[in-house]
């Protein structure tokens, strides 16, 4: 009896694409963006991450956490805006550039204001993404650009 060797698929047909270029499954991108945004919000506005970092013995880093967490929060919200745009059938201009620019500006503004209005600005960013979702849902249906 002859043994047949299994056919191994070639990897050349599988091309790596950026996370935001997934038109076939924007729900996964939306879940990841929302999960990241909620995790960053919990870490920013509760002492959870401070306790964990101090418990590991890295309490010297707790003063610098906000400089990392808030930009990540805003970038996760930019990913959510991209996912909402993909779910809506790519109506209107792509939010990739302007959402990332707004995330960078909000991060710079928070650092410049020394985190005085961090909660208000973050809630405003969440509200803006929600309003963008409503805007996309109310637009006239158009042909999806593929």
Give an overview of the whole structure:
The protein is an all-alpha fold and 146 residues long. Helices cover 61% and strands 0% of the residues. The protein is built from 5 helices and no strands. It has helices at 26-45, 48-56, 66-87, 96-112, 118-138. α1 runs antiparallel to α3 and α3 (66-87) packs parallel to α5 (118-138). The longest helix is centred in the middle third of the chain and has 22 residues, at 66-87. The termini are far apart. The relative contact order is 0.13.
Question: Notable features of this structure?
Answer:
single chain, mainly alpha, 5 helices
How many beta-strand elements? 0
Based on CA atoms alone, the radius of gyration comes out at 20 Å
The structure class reads mainly alpha
How many helical elements? 5
Query: Averaging pLDDT over every residue, what do you get?
Result: 82
Distance between the termini: 50 Å
Give the percentage of residues in beta strands.
Answer: under 5%
Report on the biggest sheet.
Answer: none
3D shape? flat
- List low-pLDDT spans: none
Give a summary of the structure in a few sentences.
This protein has five helices and no strands. The chain has helices spanning 26-45, 48-56, 66-87, 96-112, 118-138.
Summarize the helices and strands and which ones pair or pack.
Layout: H1 26-45, H2 48-56, H3 66-87, H4 96-112, H5 118-138
Helix pairs in contact: 1-3, 3-4, 3-5
């Amino acid at each position: 009896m002859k043994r047949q060797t299994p056919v191994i698929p070639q990897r050349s047909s599988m091309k790596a694409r950026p996370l935001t270029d997934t038109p076939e499954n924007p729900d996964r991108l939306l879940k990841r963006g929302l999960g990241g945004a909620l995790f960053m919000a919990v870490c920013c506005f509760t002492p959870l991450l401070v306790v964990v970092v101090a418990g590991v013995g890295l309490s010297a880093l707790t003063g610098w956490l906000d400089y990392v967490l808030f930009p990540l929060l805003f970038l996760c919200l930019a990913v959510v805006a991209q996912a909402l745009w993909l779910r809506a059938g790519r109506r209107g201009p792509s939010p990739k550039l302007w959402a990332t620019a707004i995330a960078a500006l909000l991060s710079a503004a928070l650092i410049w204001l020394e985190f005085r209005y961090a909660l208000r600005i973050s809630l405003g960013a969440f509200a803006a993404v929600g309003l963008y979702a409503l805007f996309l849902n109310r637009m006239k249906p158009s042909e999806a650009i593929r």
